[in-house]
Amino acid sequence: MKIIAIRSVPTDSNLLKLLNKRKVLHYIQRKDGHSRSDIAKALKLSKPTVSNIVDELLEEGWIREKESERASSAGGRKPFQIFFNENAAYIVGIDIGGTLVEIAIMNLAGKLISKTAFSTQKHVGNNFIQTIANYVNTLTEQNGLESSQLFGVGVGVPGITDVDSGIVIDAPSLSWKNVPLQSQLESLLSCPVYIDNDVNVAALGEYWKGAGRKNNNMIMITLGTGIGCGIIINGQLYRGASYAAGEIGYMVTDKDAADKKYEQTFSGYGFLDSHVGGPSIAKRMLNHAEKREEKWTAKKVFQMAIDGDQLALDTINDSLSHLSFALINVISIINPERVVLGGGISKSMHHFLPHITSTLEKHLPVQTDITITTVEDVSLLGAGYLILKEHESILKV
Amino acid sequence: MKIIAIRSVPTDSNLLKLLNKRKVLHYIQRKDGHSRSDIAKALKLSKPTVSNIVDELLEEGWIREKESERASSAGGRKPFQIFFNENAAYIVGIDIGGTLVEIAIMNLAGKLISKTAFSTQKHVGNNFIQTIANYVNTLTEQNGLESSQLFGVGVGVPGITDVDSGIVIDAPSLSWKNVPLQSQLESLLSCPVYIDNDVNVAALGEYWKGAGRKNNNMIMITLGTGIGCGIIINGQLYRGASYAAGEIGYMVTDKDAADKKYEQTFSGYGFLDSHVGGPSIAKRMLNHAEKREEKWTAKKVFQMAIDGDQLALDTINDSLSHLSFALINVISIINPERVVLGGGISKSMHHFLPHITSTLEKHLPVQTDITITTVEDVSLLGAGYLILKEHESILKV
DNA sequence: TTACAGTTAGTTAACCTTACTTACCAATCA
DNA sequence: TGATTGGTAAGTAAGGTTAACTAACTGTAA
Hints:
Chains A, B: It comes from Oceanobacillus polygoni. The structure is a homodimer. Chain A is of the alpha/beta class and about 400 residues long. Chain A has 3 domains: about 15-65 and about 80-85, Winged helix-like DNA-binding domain superfamily/Winged helix DNA-binding domain (Arc Repressor Mutant, subunit A, Orthogonal Bundle); about 90-205 and about 380-390, 2-Layer Sandwich (Nucleotidyltransferase, domain 5); about 210-375, ATPase, nucleotide binding domain (Nucleotidyltransferase, domain 5). Helices cover about 40% and strands about 20% of the residues of chain A. Chains A and B meet through helix 1, strand 12, helix 8 and helix 12 of A and helix 1, strand 12, helix 8 and helix 12 of B. The first copy, chain A, binds a DNA duplex (30 and 30 nucleotides) through helix 1 and helix 3.
């Protein structure tokens, strides 16, 4: 009779190993092509320990090794160079937007492999989550990947999400209330799923691949229908006590206006939303009698302002003035190294950025870099990065 | 000949031990009077491991044990109850204020043992740091303590401090620029010294002993000459990229006023400072011709407003309106569980608090507790807590 | 060309620390 | 006396360390 050993509960004794293993793997990700010896020296681990861990990582496929061409000029054995295997697994990033659901597959280094999309409004309320899962599966197959090669799926959702339970608390544009998106997708896709607010996901993307790459304290402000703000503090997303951190749409930059005129009851829409949001810009143009007939968009107003139309310019300036003071307020509280502006309106903003920064300089003594996002697919990348940030694995960052 | 064993470099193998030891000690701090067995069960450690750690902690004096009176009603051996030794060491908290330097000795549980103070202006610029050290030494002796019993010294400084290097970058009220306070005090007192901004220290005090006790995401706003804000995120002080987080004196709550009238160049004084700071309240009363002759203080204006003076009431209301919108802005960004108001003016504020919270409710959908500090010596306690938070020791929280 | 010293990379062997499991003793209740 | 609970002792496993070793290469001098 064969006695099968019951593996003892993996308690803390494994912790040290995992920590060291993670440390080694992260070092390899950062410094490609170094030897076991280099790693031991840099991480202050003994050579046998590193060798042992490296062997395991090789076995598991996370890394590759290659004999070096040349030894050191001082003599000695040729080292084996060790490289991170960026294609050891693949990540799916999903960005649920108001108009499009975008889905992408990327490798572990965040290199986009393939992308697809479908119309949100056409499918919402009609097996929506199942549709997402189908698109993910199709995309996986089309790229010749097994579902076992998927490391995880990250989703950005336009609404308030309880990240810990994986439930979308409220997403008006999808008519979702308390939808257990994470668990539903997990059972359909049989791989780990993590979800977060779209703004947070965009901030992560910018932190991973964008201007905020090296800024452990950075902020991403998204300008669109409303205004939102993703906060990265000490290299981690900060979500607040009730997942409402960065809801700067509720900010007030004009006491008198807020005291007297503003009597809005909430529907996820605050004072600042109604002063710098895209629709508010369009609406204010409409209110001027002489332009009443036209169908305005924020983009059009921006373009007219750049072209010299005084009314458009006044409108934009007023709106950007509110934005500038909002930035002052955010920066004075958070003191980030960098603020990245993103979202639909941001592309129209380059022309006005100097004006904004000069207002900041007038009111703030601290130096902060303000830039406009340049990253393509920042939300998709950020959604993917969610997996590396949140999923408990050797790759966790 | 006695051979003294050179202890091998404490590498990672000790890490796990330290972690477990810390875990056990924290458990004992939280749950006084439990047995070794209880601890093992609660922390999911084996009984021998806990016994081993407890023995070491007893040896080192951090804990005490006492044989229990009675065993469990189900029978069994009487347990040894284990208690945290709150007097295993003592902490010194120092609050350098504009008028007074306060110094206190407290035990490890934050119970104040003794307190002293001296005039800031009388000693500043004249062996100031040496004077502080002298007062600390005198206080220690007067309480029959050896300097070896001092676990550490925490200092709250009214200015911008580089917490990591221990240098006070700029403290206008002390005329300090780039003063290496930490290293100087350390060499005078020969025990670990940690320094931080006065507002951060107050926030820590409130987090340790005040209303924010159980709020891992809380904010303390201090109202005085200026307005400041200490931020605790995930149970840790957040200081920002350049130690300027929470400098909400620079916030702008009135776009038009800031655009048109406000042309202040900085001297550590921003828009909000000049609208809710104590001196600004006094100054605005002065500007009204009919009251020009009086010598105003913010406290006096508050009292007159409560007593029904219309002019005072208008002044206070305007100022508190700015404060309310500042609170809205802070909360919308940080989404804390609780905001604690402190500082000189806060005591006069109870009467107006309902008005503030009603403004918040009007503009914010999230629920946040707003309270006024009730803790005596909150800054001294916070300064002491700095040691437990920052100093690398078994007690580190 | 060959021998060999010097250097570096990586492995093997012996040992230390720490925590776990199992087994046991101690003390108490009913 | 049996059941139950608190605590200790002995043995084992896991993971890390040092020291010594093998492997492989560079450069120089006979």
